[in-house]
Design a protein that fits this description.
alpha+beta, 17% helix, covalent protein-dna linkage, protease, SRAP
Length: 253
């Protein structure tokens, strides 16, 4: 959780939405079925040298979904690191360095979750915000150097990312969406609003525990307008990828 999501916005739209720039030209084809180890867009902020000293720059990068710690022997470990539990991210060896200064935002249009039915049957659902805006999840990023890369040769670096998760907000009288989310899964990807994202991305912020608490505290407000819609079983196959995957269908059960 989350194990599949949708990211179908164009690079230019992302740059405008996040007021970001590119360090290098990137290609990010739209995907309605993002799966672990796929390349995905992330937004991060860096301190770069300028004529008048360091300046803070927001950039759009492409990273592999599934964080590969710098100490990993090979990138295969990343497939098990697509999510990071926000409650333990400060202590886990794979994430505790990244949470200090390598925080990012992971844009999405929505994500998928599956509900277990009778026997082996499962019903997929598409969770997405109200019309007119997308999602942005709290994430971490890491750089990994391929030890087999020839010494002195440029390249050999892998940028990877992980999405933070938290407990699904309990249902309340103010909205029915949280009851639907709870029925699907006890975890949700950790969303952010613009103000929270600004604080989360700040590379000079030195209170990661406080930032985690800040993002977790805003989950219910950010998710209040989410919709939960049943979709076709075709999304279960990673080879299927198109806008038809998010079209609502009648639930199987």
């Amino acid at each position: 959780m989350c194990g599949r999501y949708v990211m179908a916005r164009a690079v230019g739209d992302l740059l405008a939405e996040f007021d970001a720039e590119l360090e290098d030209e990137v290609s990010i084809p739209p995907s309605w079925n993002v799966a672990p180890t796929d390349d995905v867009p992330i937004v991060l902020e860096r301190l770069v040298d300028g004529e008048s000293g360091n300046r803070q720059v927001r950039q759009l990068h492409v990273a592999r979904w599934g964080l590969v710690p710098s100490w990993a022997k090979d990138p295969g470990i990343g497939s098990r690191m697509i999510n990071a539990r926000s409650e333990s991210v400060l202590e886990k060896p794979a994430f505790r360095k990244a949470i200090q200064s390598r925080r990012c935002a992971v844009p999405a249009d929505g994500y998928y979750e599956w509900k277990q039915g009778p026997g082996k049957s499962k019903q997929p659902y598409y969770v997405h915000p109200g019309a007119g805006h997308g999602l942005v999840f709290a994430g971490l990023y890491e750089w990994w150097k391929d030890p087999t890369w020839p010494a002195g040769e440029p390249g050999g670096w892998l940028l990877s990312t992980s999405i933070l998760t938290t407990d699904t907000p309990p249902p309340g009288s103010e909205s029915t969406v949280f009851g639907k989310l709870t029925a699907l899964h006890d975890r949700v990807p950790l969303p952010m609003d613009k103000a929270t994202m600004q604080a989360w991305l700040d590379p000079q912020a030195d209170d990661p525990a406080g930032l985690v608490d800040l993002v977790r505290a805003g989950v219910k407000d950010v998710a209040a307008d989410w919709h939960v819609e049943s979709v076709g079983k075709e999304v279960g196959n990673v080879r299927n990828n198109g806008p038809e995957l998010i079209e609502p269908v009648e639930a199987l059960f």
